[in-house]
Amino acid sequence: MSDTVKDDVRVTAPAPAAPAPAGPGRPRRPAADAGAERGILSGFDWGRAGTRWGMRVAQGLVLVLLAVASLGPLLWLARASVSTTQDTLRTPMAFWPSGLDWANLSTAWNQAQISHYFTNTVWVALGSWCVQLLIATTGGYVLAVLRPRYAPVVTAAVLATLFIPGVVVLVPLFLTVLDLPVVNASLLNTYWAVWLPAGANAFNVLLVKRFMDGLPRDVYEAARMDGAGPFRMLWSVALPMSKPILGVVSIFAFLNAWKDFLWPQIVLPEPTLQPLSVRLPLIRDTVELDVFLAALLISMALPIVIFLVFQRLFLRGAGLGGAVKG
Amino acid sequence: MSSTRRHLGVVAAAVMALSLVAACGSDDDPAADGGNGQQDDGDGGGDEQVTISVSNLPPATESATREAFLARVEEFEAANPNITIEPSEYEWDVTTFAAQLAGGTLPTTFEFPFTDGQAMIERGQLADITAEVQELPYADAFNPSVLEVAQDDSGAVFAVPTAAYGMGLHYNRAMFEQAGLDPDAPPTSWAEVREYADAIAEATGQAGFSQMSQNNTGGWILTTLTYALGGRMEEGSGDDVTATLDNDGTRQALELLRQMRWEDDAMGDNFLFDWGTINQAFAAGQVGMYIGGSDVYNSLVTENSIDPNAYGLTVLPLEGDDAGVLGGGTIVGVRPDASEAERDAAVKWIDFFYMSKLTQQDAALADAEALVATDAPLGTPALPIFGAEQLAESDAWVADLVNVPLEQMMPFKESILDQPLVPEPPVRAQDLYAELDAVVQAVLTDENADIDALLETANGNVSSLVEAG
Amino acid sequence: MNATIRWVRGGGLSTLLLLLPLLLVFSYFAWFPIGRAVVMSFQETNLVTDPAWVGLDNFRRVLEDPLFWTSVRNTLYFTGLALLFGYPVPLLLAVVMSELRRGKGLYSALAYLPVVVPPVVAVLLWRFFYDASQTGVFNTIFGWIGLGPFAWIQDASTAMPSLVLQATWANAGATVLIYLAALTGVRGDLYDAAEVDGAGLWRKIWHVTLPQLRGVLLITLILQVIATFQVFTEPYLMTNGGPQNATVTVLLQIYNYAFRFGDFGAATALSVLLALFLAAMSAVYFRLTRSWSTT
User: What distance lies between CA B453 and its chain's CA centroid?
Assistant: First the structure.
């Protein structure tokens, strides 16, 4: 549920900010493994036909429910994006009464310039990902491993931003982007206006910090004995060991940048720079419905493909939100 | 020019509220020092190299109109070797305007709608170009009631009106025929509008009449209806303006909507329309009639691919003693921090790009040919920027090239000049519109809406804003 | 001098260099704007001229705006409905899913799928589903079983529930996975013990599962409240506050102040008020996570 925050505003809000010591190796499934193999139902329960069938029916129902609710709208969109406008308007639940209309997809991609906005979105997402990863790894590394004397102060200051919801800084952040203090530059209509604020994500920093906190310290000591400096240690010791958490951070950084709407809409008024999220509501009025639905389909294709490919990472990351135990 | 047109409407929808305490705004009014321009009078400053950016370059998707625009730029630069033009795709948008101005990304000149001119002038967001405009040969020929939208109380000019339209009733001829109505005899009274709407809804199952209701368009169209029924949203002038939202005209207008919606069920099922969505629904044949600016046809063609044969346009029926038609249009202004040389170049550009086609036969023909060559609509009825005769003359220059179904717009064109033009509410128009959006939505979505009570509340809210200035 | 050299030699400089990106980005885009928000809420600015101090004027204007209480009421209503829809159902799903012996991945993937759909796409798609005519998507479906047509977002009384339904669809998957993760953490020996006492299925759920999930349940509750208080995309794109202001939320109100009416002072004042409330919620949240993570 906490995702609503992320979608609407850059997260400085306490999104799934559970202080989850998702340490290295075996995270989260807590110690008491002895009985953890079983669920609510015991082996004996499963042996009883009534319970067994009851549970199977319940599980079957849930599967149907999930399939209809989750896949239904997406499949409908897939169907509608290759239907004619009139079919979609008059008989929204029929299967292609006037035949397939594959041209919608290419019209959306070319004429409605979805290809252009798609590329913009990829840029927005890649840049946000780079910045977030850079800040989270260097910051987390310094705070967790190098631990300078001022580290607790910085950690506290970063943590504090979690308490401040993103919306409160919406306007001042916007004014900051209009005229960066000290350097007096305006980031308006540049991707930096999206990338850099995305980096100020306390959740990422704390997640990486906690993970690195959990790494065995003797590895660093050994590296230091070998004469490795802080940069070498980050590159060849800390980063390789942190791959799991960096995967989680990456995937959510990319996805959230793809989903972001309000902030890019505010800082990218120039139409040629806008990502899909900002552009879609605007082109709705100017393209035909069938083409628009095709554009919607294209816009969600990449996130879904990424999700299917990196399913495990996603599902692990999503669980982090509640991993308050253990 | 489709992008421009689009903006007209979006704009009508937009809000530019006076958010500032009046004192704060006027004290620091940057426009106040605009008068310095006088020092460099005459043809002076002509040789200084200057670069200005101009708005509304058509996007790459409209390659033909884009090329035509760029060709005009080259032509201008050839004629004015000291001026370099940087075309920008910028389109005025109320939500980003202040930010772009502060962020320095606003072009030197930009188009915006009549509706927002006064608020921008009061907030010091436009340059005073009185001196530069005075240089133009037709400076004295402007229709005073049109030029007014670009002037402050003292008569200083902050922008140049380039196009004007009156509100009209758009209707779908095909749906008229389906309902057994004569498409060449559109309704001439509001009772007939209601009757026709009912017949269309009955015969087609679609909305016989639809009404915008979102993003201030609800208030905008309700004001149009009110004027047509003889009411006014604000009375008085100068410092002595009072809100009169609860007038008989508005009450009648809402009552008409209520009857069409609830008694006749002639308004379909969707009531959350704004400018863009209602145009789309109309072009898709889901709306029989609706009220909008007379120039909407241009964007119905370029953005919504309407079938020209189905389009019809007529004037709004005027009923009541003081009835009139609401007008609107496009004005072009200059950013307030432009230097003198930039202001000078900007007005030259405005003269060349926007005005010459209204005032010179050659330019008018060239512009018309370029439009027609790209299948852009030419000939949609407009209101005069200067005078009725001048408009008739400039229309005649390009009459042979007209590519819109002018016959189907004749009911409008023949009568619009006889209708008295009423300007928008002078104070806080956009706040007033926003307040009325909710009233329109209430009447359309709540069968038991109490019109009197709604108007009383809305009038109270707007009154306190109007009194505050 | 010596101290400085020692500091550099000891890696102090490279440490600072490594921390520099974080310090810069957080200074510019988090710490400074937060401070500025507080300052701005007492100022009047049009972005062009210098801001002026106006004391509590912004707050007064915000609180006197007739839409203020409307937006608070609407936001609370949204939150309440979101809890009603989005709280028990994911829990039920998670309980059933946790008993799966095979295919848990498939179930999870299906549940999570809507979460990855960009909200703008989802909202625009659902806006179309909510078409109020006979041939609208949902009205067609309900028509099969003889219900409707419903007005959905075209009516003040059903607009908000419609928005919440869409938001629940978009977000419930994430909640399911949180519960699922928590359920796998419930210790099996507690069930064993309950069975020894002769507890049946329902009693086990009531006396073992739910108490064990207490922490997670409370935390997702608070997270959900915090998140729903910042809801924007749905009301903005689906109804833009209408009909009759029935879906004007606090964040939409902030957006309108700033970007529709250019009143940046009122926008920040309302933001600060909202922030105070949410910070209180967050504080509760952090206390809870701390106390539960130590048990």
Answer: 31
Strand partners, B234: B243
Find out whether B283 and B216 touch, Cβ atoms under 8 Å: no
Render B303-342 in DSSP notation, one character per residue: TT---GGGEEEEEPP--STT--EEEEEEEEEE-TT--HHH
For residue B328, which of B11, B6, B4 has the smallest C-alpha distance?
B11
Q: Is B235 helix (H, G, I), strand (E, B) or coil?
A: strand
Q: Is B336 in the C-facing interface, judged by CB distances under 8 Å?
A: yes
Residues of A in contact with B7 (CB under 8 A): none
Tell me which residue in A2, A71, A164 faces C34 most closely, judged by beta carbons. Answer: A164
Neighbours of chain A (3+ CB pairs under 8 A): B, C
pLDDT tens per residue across span C125-183: 999 999 888 888 999 999 999 887 888 998 888 999 999 999 999 988 888 888 888 88
Counting the structural domains of chain C, the total is 1
Which among A85, A188, A271 has the least Cβ separation from residue B59? Answer: A271
Residue-wise over A116-141: b if at least 16 C-beta within 10 A, else e?
bbbebbbbbbebbbebbbebbbbbbb
State the DSSP code for B402: -
Query: Coil, strand, or helix at residue B374?
Result: coil
With contact defined as 3+ CB pairs under 8 Å, the chains touching B are A, C
Would you say C165 and A309 are in contact if contact means Cβ atoms under 8 Å apart? no
CATH of domain B2-165+328-399: 3.40.190.10
Contact criterion met (CB < 8 Å) for A13 and C135: no
Structure token pair of residue A193: 């206006």
Selection from B283, B255, B281 nearest residue B268 by Cα: B281
Backbone phi, then psi, for B207, in 5-degree steps? -75, 125
Q: What is the pLDDT along chain B (469 residues), one digit of tens a residue?
A: 333 333 333 333 333 332 222 333 333 333 333 333 333 434 444 567 999 999 988 877 677 778 888 989 999 999 999 999 999 888 888 777 877 787 777 899 999 988 888 878 887 889 999 999 999 999 999 988 888 889 988 889 999 999 999 999 999 999 999 999 999 999 999 999 999 999 999 999 999 999 999 888 999 999 999 999 999 999 987 778 899 999 999 999 999 999 999 999 999 988 888 888 899 889 989 999 999 999 899 888 887 888 999 999 999 999 988 999 998 889 999 999 899 999 999 999 999 999 998 889 988 998 898 888 888 889 999 889 998 888 999 999 999 999 999 999 999 999 998 999 888 888 888 889 988 999 999 999 889 999 999 999 999 989 988 877 6
Helix/strand/coil for B42:
coil
CB-CB: which of B17, B124, B444 is closest to C262? Answer: B17
What one-character DSSP code corresponds to residue C257?
I
Please state the pTM of the whole predicted model.
0.81
Write down the ipTM of this complex.
0.88
For chains B and C, what is the number of CB pairs under 8 angstroms? 107
CB within 8 A of C230, min separation 6: which ones? A4, A5, A8, A9, A13, A165, A166, A167, C251, C274, C278
Is C30 a domain residue? no
Domain B166-327+414-468 classified CATH 3.20.20.70? no
Count, in order, helices (H) and strands (E) of chain A. Answer: 19, 0
Phi and psi at B323, nearest 5°, equal: -70, 150
Cα torsion angle, A24, C107, A69, C217, sign: negative
Position C27 in a domain: no
Q: Does B15 touch chain C (CB under 8 A)?
A: yes
Q: Which domain holds residue C117?
A: 57-293
Give residue limits of the domains in chain B: 2-165+328-399, 166-327+414-468
Dihedral pair phi/psi, residue B398, rounded to 5°? -110, 10
